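FORM 7B: Structural annotation worksheet

SECTION A. Query
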Amino acid sequence: MSLAASHELVNYTTVELWYDAVVSKNPAVPHPLPEPLIELVAQRFRVLGEPMRIKLLDRLREGDATVGELQEALGASQQNVSKHLGILHSAGMVSRSKDGTHSRYAIADHAVFELCDQVCGGVRRQLQDLEAILQAT
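SECTION B. Predicted structure
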């Protein structure tokens, strides 16, 4: 069964195994993309496709935090914050460490911000193009 057919969340271990087996031995991205790599890329976009996860990553960009600190900063419920942190952790985007009775979360993969910056740049260009069209009319 392919990863695409399983519809399961691809976890960080799966990504690392695939990376060790294929990508690290061949740093150039193969084209056409192999199906397992397509699924891994699509899974990463699905993880980032939830606004709360973007908010959590943006807040964690400032430094590590507990669920309670994130809950307070974002005005979200503990259950909602915990759920999304779990997904980000499974995807390898955030790390978790114990701090007494609390868990602290931090950014584990800073490359996620490069992707966010590129998307923001694309949105900015679209807005500029739209503004130019509106001014021309």
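SECTION C. Observations
Residues 23 and 87 are 23 Å apart (CA to CA). Residues 111-136 form the longest helix (26 residues).

SECTION D. Sign-off
Analyst initials: ____
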